[in-house]
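Thread: adenosine-5'-triphosphate complex, take 2
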Amino acid sequence: MAEKLQAIKGMNDILPPDSARWEWFEDVVRRLLQRYGYKAFRTPIVEPTALFVRGLGEVTDIVEKEMYSFTDSMNGDQLTLRPEATAGMVRAIVEHNALYNGPLRVWQMGPMFRHERPQKGRYRQFHQLDVEAFGHAGPDVDAEIILMLRALWRELGLKEGEQITLEINSLGQPAERLAHRAALISHLEAHAALLDDDARRRLHSNPLRILDTKNPAMAPVVDSAPRLIDFLGEASRAHFDGVRAVLDAAGLAYRINPRLVRGMDYYNLTVFEWVTPLLGSQATVCGGGRYDTLIEQLGGKPAPGVGFGLGIERLLLLLEAAGLNPPPSAPDAYAVVAEGVPLTTVMPLLEQLRAAGVAVVLHAGGGSLKSQFKRADASGARHALIFGPDELARGEVAIKSLRDAAAPQRTAALSAALSWARDLLPA
Ligand code: ATP
Ligand code: MG
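Output below.
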């Protein structure tokens, strides 16, 4: 036998029954986004490396150590498998002048790639739902996307405030961050002895990211650091208050987390995360915020943006931990075909049933009736359609309930499928 090949470490196959959870989530998301006026974008998985270096910032975890970057051996181009979606969305907006007719709400769902140490909730190929609203200065849209996420949790059955909670912060504007940065660097320098290597390296390049450290030894320095929120000017404060007022009016509880910074440098004003106590250290299910200079930074006409990335694997793990399962998706019927019965009779009839909306699985390949009924039971179907020689001779098919053993078997006319197809659907 030939040697077996394996998937790449940290990259997963998604097979039934797990894939049902994915389809459930995707269906709910599509319907929800449509209700808020979002349109689909599909951008490539591979982008020029420069897009992420310029877009996310050179001194970020992602760009420094997590990107799958390579040289295209055909032409020498520097390419990267996208580690996140916003930069590609913005590139596409700029390239196609997509804001020409005004603001645009867009979304996409798909794989992202980061070279991290694989563990539960952290993979090298993972998937995100990415939602972006371009051309709105806010705070209305900031609040709207947060409320849309609450609506998503509700549709999936998650208990907001318990199984998933909102944290928000404001990163202000560049000038405010600069003033805060100077104060922060002084504070960190005053405690230089307590800084770890990572922090020392970032002290002058990206001190804000030091506040996002996962090193518990740094907690005292981080907790006593000057807070960006205290450096906000009037306009930034008003924006933040505007977002909060809508969330308050909608009865959404949140925690203001002055330490909340995000992993990319492009954010300003509103940032937020939805976190869960049910997934250990992989607690952040969804993160986002406003990025009003990114479009310009990537060569477009200045326009504001706000959006989020939701980690689908983490969300599905959370749903599982919360005991929430997709609605059952068993077929309505399973077609059992006795030996010698012509498929030329069976298959056109099944096509008619499917056209009428009935989910019916054909037992392909024959075999004893006993083994076919075993398959029918295993499929979870509610009904068996039995194509036997006697029934066929009378121009009929037998219908047997697979759920209710006491229910009598009945017959139906092959020539009038549309008149009884509906009986196979759930009540
Ligand atoms: P973390 O702090 O957990 O590394 P992050 O700040 O790097 O997260 P973002 O870049 O904000 O994450 O991505 C948005 C979401 O995508 C995260 O909140 C998470 O749910 C998910 N995510 C990020 N990296 C991974 C990964 N390697 N595997 C699975 N999901 C991920
Ligand atoms: Mg990360």
